[in-house]
Amino acid sequence: MSEGSSALLAVRNLKKYFPLKRTSLRQKEQLYVRANDGISLDIKEGETFGLVGESGCGKSTFGRVLLQLYPQTEGETIYYGRRPEEFQPEYRKKAPSNEPGIDLTQLKPKEMRLLRRDLQLIFQDPYSSLNPRMTVGQIIGEGVLAHGMFTRRDPGFSEYIVAIMEQCGLSPYMFHRYPHQFSGGQRQRIGIARSLAVKPRFVVCDEAVSALDVSIQSQILNLLMDLKQEQKLTYLFISHDLSVVKYISDRIGVMYLGSLVELAASKDLFQEPLHPYTEALLSAIPTTDPQNNRKVILLEGDIPSPVRPPLGCKFHTRCPYATDICKTDPPEFVEAKPGHYSACHHIDRVGEKTRRVS
């Protein structure tokens, strides 16, 4: 999947299962919530990779597992941004392309701490993710001090924090203010400044604009795009809003019930989806175009349980194209077109339900 620029992160068969508490002494089987179930993809250096799907499909869990905030149940997460020589030999791993890479799942906590500067997270909720007892300067500077970039007595420490604030659209006079004195958009800017203050290479934006007004969303998106160009960042942009993801992403992955069902360049995905679930999501995007006669696909039924997912294709219980093979055989995630991947037995039929009425 890594065409063109080199990969910064390579994910292979990533699984994350959360064990459920046994409900009775008679229950012998240990049940798990299969939040991520065998995800494989490459995130290229310098790109914005969008990840979309319904609420509860495992998007946010994937982002946190990628950063090793949650331990992986199975699989490999290989990071190319550091030299393996910085770590002990037994924790080095050769990546599939035979380039030196570091398997994050094999690192000890102290070794993983060395990479925290490189791998950062922008939280979804700008209200609960900031410590109400700390000032803006303390919040942004906390990571800088923790990673030894400055000490509190360094004369350039305050100037550095103020410079980061101004980069993120915050005025210097806000340095000594507390989070409750700011609006939602300003708080999200504080969260962005906190993540970027340690000079990361890869940032997970976990629903970074979903809690904001539409007018503020555009400002934050433009800020993220500007910062990406200035600091040469790589983003994993998680969202349930396809319009937002289309605006900011180079490539887009679509998740359903813990699995990746489609992956393509942003333009290709919107022009010609190759999975029924993507087709249904795109058909539901509101439009003001009076010439748009595309039919809206209403998916019937609820999302199946991630504890006991359906056999075969996980989407077959809601799919308008489902046949007998979908109920028994899981589809392979294959490259249907150059750079366009899909997991569906009936790729050739996708599009029949939403073709324009002439």
Automatic annotation (TrEMBL):
<dbReference type="InterPro" id="IPR017871">
    <property type="entry name" value="ABC_transporter-like_CS"/>
</dbReference>
<dbReference type="InterPro" id="IPR050319">
    <property type="entry name" value="ABC_transp_ATP-bind"/>
</dbReference>
<feature type="domain" description="ABC transporter">
    <location>
        <begin position="20"/>
        <end position="282"/>
    </location>
</feature>
<keyword id="KW-0813">Transport</keyword>
<dbReference type="Pfam" id="PF00005">
    <property type="entry name" value="ABC_tran"/>
</dbReference>
<dbReference type="InterPro" id="IPR013563">
    <property type="entry name" value="Oligopep_ABC_C"/>
</dbReference>
<dbReference type="GO" id="GO:0055085">
    <property type="term" value="P:transmembrane transport"/>
</dbReference>
<dbReference type="GO" id="GO:0005524">
    <property type="term" value="F:ATP binding"/>
</dbReference>
<protein>
    <submittedName>
        <fullName>ATP-binding cassette domain-containing protein</fullName>
    </submittedName>
</protein>
<comment type="similarity">
    <text>Belongs to the ABC transporter superfamily.</text>
</comment>
<dbReference type="GO" id="GO:0015833">
    <property type="term" value="P:peptide transport"/>
</dbReference>
<keyword id="KW-0547">Nucleotide-binding</keyword>
<dbReference type="InterPro" id="IPR003593">
    <property type="entry name" value="AAA+_ATPase"/>
</dbReference>
<keyword id="KW-0067">ATP-binding</keyword>
<dbReference type="Pfam" id="PF08352">
    <property type="entry name" value="oligo_HPY"/>
</dbReference>
<dbReference type="GO" id="GO:0016887">
    <property type="term" value="F:ATP hydrolysis activity"/>
</dbReference>
<dbReference type="InterPro" id="IPR027417">
    <property type="entry name" value="P-loop_NTPase"/>
</dbReference>
<dbReference type="InterPro" id="IPR003439">
    <property type="entry name" value="ABC_transporter-like_ATP-bd"/>
</dbReference>
